[in-house]
Amino acid sequence: MQEGASLTSFAASIDVSRATINVWMNEHPEFLEAANAGKAKCAAWWEKVGRNIALGGGGPGASTLAVFGMKNMGKDDWSDSTQVDHRSSDGSMTPKAPVYNITDT
Fold it and tell me: How far is CA 99 from the centre of its chain?
């Protein structure tokens, strides 16, 4: 993982499924910590790739690959985020019914 590989790639390298890795992380806190350390190393690798591309280029598609790598492997630091506020103008979650003024003409 210190060379940019995912947990799924790690699972394949030890001949288990990603689901098995997830079970191990849920059942063994020390394994969860090791997996999180691996994820941090993976994210650091992708950031380094992105910096190298920013400084010197990387050929066709390289920057796109680096962006996806950083967003997916280091999503806490490199994700796009959008926040939508669904509250009404008074701060409640229930929109107020419109008020119509009807006058006779």
Answer: 43
**Does residue 30 lie within any of the structural domains?**
yes
pLDDT tens-digit profile of 82-96? 677 777 666 666 655
The per-residue pLDDT for 104 is 60
Give me the amino acid identity at 28. Answer: H
CA distance 82 to 93: 19
pTM of the predicted model as reported, rounded to 2 decimal places = 0.62
| Residue labelled with tokens 């979650």 | 93
- Tell me whether residue 88 is in a domain: no
> Which burial class, exposed, middle or buried, applies to 66 when counting CB atoms under 10 A from its CB (0-12, 13-18, 19+)?
buried
